[in-house]
Design the sequence.
């Protein structure tokens, strides 16, 4: 059974940083691309970033480029999202999502299984 | 970016009803569309991918259709567990973009 468990969320002051982790199990983590998606309280879903199975290719949405950095450690079966220069509007539940393919370009990304999410609250 | 216009934003229905939700893409996305169901406080779950392919374990009362720019999700014979919010997602190009959601609640 695919399991994705996010952690690292919490309360942080504006301008602060946080690193989110997503621990994966139940599948061959190093074989699949992974993604991050967020959801502000009471709002819809917003796509953040993607990383190929080997970690050498990444994509970040323009609105978060330069502040958020996706990475992975296949030896640990863990996906990361580094959040920098946080703003109040970054307050959201952050989800990690498993893809069905290894690459992120030249293929159709198909978000498949989602973790339960971790809440990030940016407030002074 | 590809914009996904989802409608309606909410619908009230009864158990046994048939409900149809639509998503329109601002440009052609072939069949690269998925549908997700989300219940309050829970993570989204994939229902359909490639516009019409049912995700493993999803009941057959869910069906999807369309290609290009117009897509639909139909729930036939609505069950109590189907009351939730539904989102479409275009997976054709980055940034992947979601519709704004359709809340299906009890009439």
Sequence:
């Amino acid at each position: 059974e695919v399991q994705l468990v996010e952690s690292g969320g919490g309360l942080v002051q504006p301008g602060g940083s946080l690193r989110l982790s997503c621990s994966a199990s139940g599948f061959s983590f190093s074989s699949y691309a992974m993604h991050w998606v967020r959801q502000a309280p009471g709002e819809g879903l917003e796509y953040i970033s993607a990383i190929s199975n080997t970690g050498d290719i990444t994509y970040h949405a323009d609105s978060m480029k330069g502040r958020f950095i996706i990475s992975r450690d296949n030896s640990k079966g863990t996906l990361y999202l580094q959040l920098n220069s946080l703003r109040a509007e970054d307050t959201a539940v952050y989800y990690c999502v498993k893809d069905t393919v290894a690459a992120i370009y030249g293929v159709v990304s198909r978000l498949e299984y989602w973790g339960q999410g971790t809440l990030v609250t940016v407030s002074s | 970016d590809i914009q996904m216009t989802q409608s309606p934003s909410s619908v009230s229905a009864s158990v046994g009803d048939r409900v149809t939700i639509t998503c329109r893409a601002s440009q052609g996305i072939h069949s690269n569309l998925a549908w997700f169901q989300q219940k309050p406080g829970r993570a989204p779950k994939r229902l359909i991918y490639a516009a019409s392919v049912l995700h493993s374990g999803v009941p057959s009362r869910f069906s999807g259709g369309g290609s290009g720019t117009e897509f639909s999700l139909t729930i036939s014979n609505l069950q109590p567990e189907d009351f939730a919010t539904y989102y479409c997602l275009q997976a054709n190009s980055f940034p992947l973009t979601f519709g704004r959601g359709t809340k299906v609640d009890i009439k």
Summary: The mean pLDDT of chain A is 96. Strands of chain A lie at 3-7, 10-12, 18-25, 34-39, 45-51, 58-60, 68-73, 78-83, 92-98, 118-122. Chain A touches chain B through 21 residues (CB under 8 Å). The two ends of chain A are 40 Å apart (CA to CA).
